[in-house]
Automatic annotation (TrEMBL), chain A:
This enzyme's EC code(s): 2.7.11.22
Catalytic reaction(s) noted: L-seryl-[protein] + ATP = O-phospho-L-seryl-[protein] + ADP + H(+); L-threonyl-[protein] + ATP = O-phospho-L-threonyl-[protein] + ADP + H(+)
Name of the protein in question: cyclin-dependent kinase
Keyword ATP-binding in annotation: yes
One Pfam family this sequence matches: Pkinase
GO cellular component, one term: nucleus
Enzyme class: transferase
Organism: Penicillium alfredii
UniProtKB/TrEMBL annotation, chain B:
BP GO terms, sorted: regulation of transcription by RNA polymerase II
InterPro entries (alphabetical): Cyclin-like_sf, Cyclin/Ssn8
Domain of life: Eukaryota
Name of this chain's protein: Cyclin N-terminal domain-containing protein
GO molecular function: cyclin-dependent protein serine/threonine kinase regulator activity
Length: 472, 299
């Protein structure tokens, strides 16, 4: 009886191949080592040269001595070159990690409440002053309604993602402080004078094209960072974009944010404020990704252009019909697989829907809606508002879009106009923006039969998107 | 090189020297050897509970790190105020809640009731007679509805306490996946090595030197690889390969010694507490302190 495993290969040919592979690997390794050595030599030479020039500048000769800076003399700050040099001398080519510690929460009494700013879906925000430093901050109280599962996971995620998302275009969470009761938890964040929504409401004219580019680049830049950290925001809208008087804009309100993974975990579709919610969410997808944020970016882009929210649906059904009115209805070419989404079954399409263009290029949005936008701009907007999530650009692709490189160029931040701050002293007016969906709600069973008019189901009593009637 | 802020998700907040030298428990008069024993038993309790809850090891390991951080420093938790078993349960519940595998308070408390039952527990420091041979009677480990309601309140309260003590920083980066990436980079793909690496990393969770709160995950990964390759007789590349992964020789040496000593430490613990239980609740800690006081006076 043969004791040999049937997996053991005794085939001489296989063996030869394996040996060949091994040789190749060995050779590669050797080549790599050689390259590394050469690199090191080069580095050493360069270092020597650097040191020599440095020594020559300092009027020293011979091998440079290790210089220890003993005092923090503010008059003689080391130049970056010097710091570099010192680092290299300590032969620390090793990467250093950001040094962080942990400590208990401070008490909210370290802050003096100045004025109330607004109430969002996840908490109350007020302007406050740090009693010790005098700095003005925004204080956000987390809502903890006696939840049966302990500390609400949304609040935990908001803190966790904000602590992780240190970026110049993401609002800075300084610390978390607590009140007297176990349930009193406050986020201490940098205070910014405006939010984009209020600003747009107060402005007579929309932003200039150059200003829109600066704003959009910053928002998408922040979003790119978030996505790179595996964070989805899931509630991007103009009222969650904060602006200061130095032309800087920051993404705020991470109450809906969470980590995602690859493969994506099952997620709730009850995210993103209705007007900024992507079609796949409206059609009930429970597997989705960062594309939902890109759709919101498209809505924000449109809002920056016209000063008005782009798609102001009264409810989910109306929102879907408004989307299709803008983009045209989906078909299996432009959005493969949309039919299998839970809520798509009730969609009844107009019988004589225009035949899809067979060319693979994305259909452009109607130019009449955005008369002052360049072709590149319209192209970008159309791709962000593509019905098919896979057709939307990533944040990174968006940043590289030609729209941002053509004239007029993005306006430098320092050239940005300033505006009187509403949040600064006065109580804020409430706006008629729908709120982000609440966690724990049942996902609604939606009947989209009325999206294209005709069939019952749409409870708006309106005539759907309109274009079917024109065809009829 | 300046610290790179983009590396935050690969790094951890570390304990300060102050936090390592002063614990809230030691200020309250708990001898450090007792504190170490309880903390180590708490880690084993967390690990076992995580397995029974079918949580993946990364969640369990994160919970252990949160549990470990909680007791450190003068501002940390004291064993005379908080029961180790409650902190263990809340850390596990909290970590699972933030992960892709949340679990319910009921499941967590069921598991902890079983693990802390003196008759039914398989844990040597709770049930020194060892896991019962025959299935124990259910009423020794079943959590009644009334018991559940009060235990749930404790669980949720301790969750809040942990969050406040840690300043709501729940981020824990683990070395496990980093180690696998390094192994691939080094071309050491033998499953036996990888398994040994993961064993060392999980073992280090028990380390009395608290390696997970004193060293960054990349260093832990490198040390585990170094040890595993040695033990499995696998030759890695020549030269100081650990520097490629940003670990210097000194740190590597310390970690290797620390990881290797964990096994001996655990054996000594088992010997020291033979036929005795390790106090996992405040009352038992008080009783142990009283017992020690009596012993001292008796001598």
């Amino acid at each position: 009886m043969s004791a040999k495993s049937r997996w053991a290969d005794d085939d001489p040919e296989t063996e030869a191949i394996v040996a060949q592979q091994k040789r190749e690997k060995e050779e590669k390794r050797r080549a790599k080592a050689e390259k590394q050595r050469q690199l090191e030599e080069k580095e050493k030479k360069k270092k020597n040269n650097d040191e020599n020039t440095q020594a020559a500048i300092n009027g020293e000769s011979g091998p440079p001595k290790k210089r220890l800076r003993l005092s923090n003399d503010p008059d003689a700050p080391p130049t970056t070159a010097e710091v570099d040099q010192q680092d290299r001398k300590k032969q620390s080519s090793l990467l250093r990690f950001p040094v962080r510690e942990w400590g208990p929460c401070r008490h909210v009494d370290n802050f003096e409440r100045l004025n109330h700013i607004e109430e969002g879906s996840y908490g109350w925000v007020s302007r406050a002053k740090d009693i010790n430093t005098g700095e003005v901050v925004a204080l956000k109280k987390l809502k903890i309604e006696n939840s049966p599962d302990g500390f609400p996971v949304t609040g935990l995620r908001e803190i966790q993602t904000l602590l992780e998302a240190r970026h110049s275009n993401v609002v800075y969470l300084r610390e978390v402080v607590m009140g007297n009761k176990m349930d009193d938890v406050f986020l201490v964040m940098d205070f910014l004078e405006h939010d984009l929504k209020t600003l747009l409401d107060e402005m007579r004219e929309p932003f200039l094209p150059s200003e829109i580019k600066t704003l959009l680049l910053q928002v998408v830049g922040g979003l790119e960072f978030l996505h790179a950290q595996w964070i989805m925001h899931r509630d991007l809208k103009t009222s969650n974009l904060l602006m200061n008087n130095r032309g800087e804009i920051k993404i705020a309100d991470f109450g809906m944010a969470r980590y995602y993974g690859d493969p994506p975990p099952k997620l709730t579709q009850l995210v993103v404020t209705l007007w900024y919610r992507s079609p796949e969410l409206l059609l009930g997808a429970d597997k989705y990704g960062t594309e939902v944020d890109m759709w919101s970016i498209g809505c924000i882009f449109g809002e920056l252009l016209t000063k008005e929210p782009l798609l102001q649906g009264k409810n989910e059904v109306d929102q879907v019909s408004q989307i299709f009115a803008l983009t045209g209805p989906p078909n299996s070419q432009s959005w493969p697989g949309f039919r299998s989404l839970p809520n798509a079954k009730s969609l009844r399409f107009p019988p004589s829907a225009p035949a899809p263009s067979s060319s693979g290029s994305l259909p452009l949005l109607p130019r009449s809606r955005f008369p002052y936008l360049t072709n590149a701009g319209l192209g970008l907007l159309s791709s962000l508002l593509a019905l098919n999530p896979a057709a939307r650009p990533s944040a990174q692709q968006c940043l590289a879009h030609p729209y941002f490189r053509e004239d007029p160029r993005p306006k430098p931040r320092e050239m940005f106009p300033t505006f009187p701050s509403k949040a600064g002293m006065e109580k804020r007016r409430r706006h008629h923006t729908p709120e982000a969906p609440r966690r724990g709600q049942e996902a609604p069973e939606l009947d989209f039969a009325g999206v294209f008019g005709g069939a019952p189901g749409g409870d708006t009593g309106e005539v759907g998107a309109g274009f079917t009637l024109r065809l009829g | 090189m300046a610290p790179n802020p983009g590396l935050k998700h690969l790094s951890n907040a570390l304990a300060t020297p102050d936090q390592l030298s002063n614990s809230s428990s030691s200020i309250d008069g708990v001898p450090s050897d007792l504190e170490t024993s309880i903390r180590c038993a708490g880690v084993q309790l967390t690990q076992t509970a995580g397995i029974l809850l079918h949580l993946s090891q990364d969640i369990i390991a994160q919970a252990v790190v949160i549990f470990t951080r909680f007791w450190l420093g003068a501002d940390g938790g004291s064993l005379r105020i908080y029961s180790a078993k409650d902190v263990s349960a809340a850390a596990l519940y909290l970590t699972a809640k933030l992960s892709f595998q949340p679990t319910s308070p009921r499941s967590v408390l069921n598991v902890y009731t079983l693990l802390l039952s003196p008759g039914a527990s398989p844990l040597w420091f709770v049930n020194p007679r060892g896991a019962p041979k025959e299935p124990p009677s259910p009423d020794t480990y079943v959590l009644s509805e009334g018991g559940y309601q009060s235990a749930r309140l404790v669980l949720l309260r301790i969750e809040s306490v942990i969050l406040r003590t840690l300043g709501f920083d729940t981020h824990v980066a683990l070395p496990h996946t980093i180690a696998l990436t390094y192994l691939q980079t080094l071309g050491a793909t033998r499953p036996a090595v990888a398994r040994r690496v993961v064993e060392h990393l999980n073992g280090a969770l028990l380390s009395p030197q608290l390696l997970y709160v004193t060293h960054q995950p990349n260093a832990l990964a490198v040390a585990a690889i170094y040890l595993a390759a040695r033990e499995e007789g696998v030759k890695l590349v020549d030269g100081e390969w650990w520097e490629v992964f940003d670990v210097d020789r000194e740190e590597l040496g310390f970690l290797v010694v620390g990881m290797k000593s964990t096994e001996g430490f655990m054996r000594a613990e088992a010997e020291r507490w033979k036929n005795k239980t390790i106090p996992m609740v405040v009352d038992e800690v008080e009783a142990e302190l009283e017992r020690r006081r009596m012993m001292e006076e008796g001598e």
